[in-house]
Amino acid sequence: MGVLGGIGVGWLFNLLSTLEQSASFASYVVTYDGVLSGNVGDGTTTFMLYGACVVGTIIAGFLNYFLGRRLSIVSGGLFSTLGMVAVSANDALRSTLLMPGIGLLGASCGILLPSLAIYIYEISTKEMRGKAVLLLGMGFIAGSLLGGIFATVNQLGWIWQTFAACIVIALVTPVVNVFPESPYWVLDRKGWDACEACLVVLRRKPDVQDELKIMREEETADEGGAGAFKFLVGLFLMLVSSLTTGFLNAFISYKGASEYTDQDQLFVNAMALQISGAVIAFFFIDKLDHKSILFGTLIPVAICAGILGFNESSSLLGNSEGSGLYVSLVVMLMYFFMGLGTSSAPWSACVGMFTTRGRASSTTMLFAIFYLADLGYVYMHTHESMVANEYLYLYAIAGFSVVALVLLLGAGTRKNGVICTKSEAQRDRDRIARMRAERASRNTRTPGTARQRNLSRVRSKSNAGGQRGNATPGNYQMYETPANAAPPLMHARA
C-alpha cells in the first residue's frame, strides 16, 4: 500500500509541478487553442496545483479526525478519479474543465500524502514504523523517477501520464479495505474495548495487552510544554523535505534541459541515485536511530546545496556550457544522500512526534507547509527579472538543514529510532526496562522447572500410595496384576 500510494502520488505531483516546463503540455495548449487562459509558463497551472494541494491537506485533517484514516485515503482516490475525468474532457468542455481538473488532482495529492503517512505509521508494529514510512518514501521517489523518464527518455503525453498515475492510486483503495481502521483512531473515537478488538484483527493474535499498554502510555503522556519544540523540529525537517522535492526537482529538470550541455537526462540519473540510496537505507533504517541518520546525511546535502548555489552566482564550476559534468556530479551526490536520509526520517518524525489528535492538526499542517514552501520558487520562475535569483532557494536548503541539525541536538529518539523529545525518549527506555522485568518475572517458572516439579509431585504420590499398600494386608497388589487377582465368582445353577 505504501509503495503503490507513493508511486501514484509522486508521479502525479512531479508531473503537475513541472507541467509548464514540459513539451507535451506546450504542444497540448498549441493544438487546442484557447484551452488555457493565459500563456504557458506564466505559473497559472502551477499556482493552481499548489493551492489545491494545500486545500487538500486541510480537507485531510478534517477527514482523518472525523471519518478515519481509511475513508480519507478513499476520498483522495475519488478526487484523483474526478480530476482524471476532467482533464480528459473533449471538445467544448476541454477549456472549461482543465483548471478544475488540475485542482482536483492537486487536492488528491494533498489528501493522500498525509493520510497515507499517518495510516501506514499507525497500523505498523512499533519496530517496523521507520521501514513502513520508508516504503512510502521509496514509492514517492519511484513515481518521480517515472515522471522524469516519460518526460525525457520515452516521451509520453501528459494526459496519458495522468491516467497511469491515477490508475496506480486507484489500486490503493482495495488494498486499504484489506486492513482494519487505525487502532489509534479507534482508541480516540470509540474507546479501549473497540481498540483491543481492532488490534486483535490487525495483529492476528488474541493477546495484545502489551501493545495496549504502550498505546495507553503514549496517548496519556504529559508533553510538559514540548509541543512547540516538536512542531519547530517538524517544521524545519518538513522545509528540508519540501525544498529537496518540489523546488529541487523542478530546478534540476529545467537546468538539465535548457542550460547544461548534454545533461538533458540529469534529473532521471539523479532520481535513480536517490532511489538507490533509499534502497540502501532500507537495510539500516531499523538499526540506526533517525537522528544519527539525519546527522550523517543532512551535512553533505547542505554542502552540496551550498556549492550549487554558489556556482549559480559565481560560475564556480565553469560556465553553463562546460559546467554540466561537474554540476551533475554534485547533483547526483546530493540526491544519493537525500535518498539515504530524507526519504523517511522527516515524515516519520512529523507523524510520530504527535498524539492521535495532534496528527489530525499538526501533521497535516506540516504537510501543508510541504506544498506551500515551493510557491516562492514558482513566483520567481515566472518573472524574468527574478529568474536569476532562483539559486537563493539552494542556499535555503543549506540553511534549513543546518537549523534542523541544531534543533535535533535537543531532541531524543525512541527505541524504534523515531525522533521525539528527550523526556519521551527516557520514558520509552523506562517502559522497555519495566516490560522486560515483568516478562522476566512471568518466566521465572521455566518449562523445564515446571516439568521437574510435576514429576517430583507424581513420584511422591506414588511412593505414598506404595507405603499405604504395604501396611495393609490383602492389598492393592491383588488388583494390580491378573496373576494375583481373586478368582471369579461361580454362580450355582438353579
Automatic annotation (TrEMBL):
Keywords of the record: Membrane, Transmembrane, Transmembrane helix
GO MF annotations in UniProt: carbohydrate:proton symporter activity
UniProt-recorded name of the protein: 1,3-beta-glucan synthase component
Membrane topology listed for this record: Multi-pass membrane protein
UniProt keyword Plastid present: no
Domain Major facilitator superfamily (MFS) profile: 1-416
GO-annotated cellular components: membrane
Region (Disordered): 436-494
Xref: InterPro entries: MFS_dom, MFS_sugar_transport-like, MFS_Sugar_Transporters, Sugar_transporter_CS
Organism, scientific name: Phytophthora pseudosyringae
Residue ranges crossing the lipid bilayer per the database entry: 47-66, 71-89, 101-121, 133-152, 158-179, 231-254, 266-285, 292-311, 323-342, 363-380, 392-412
Chief place of localization: membrane
Subcellular localization: Membrane
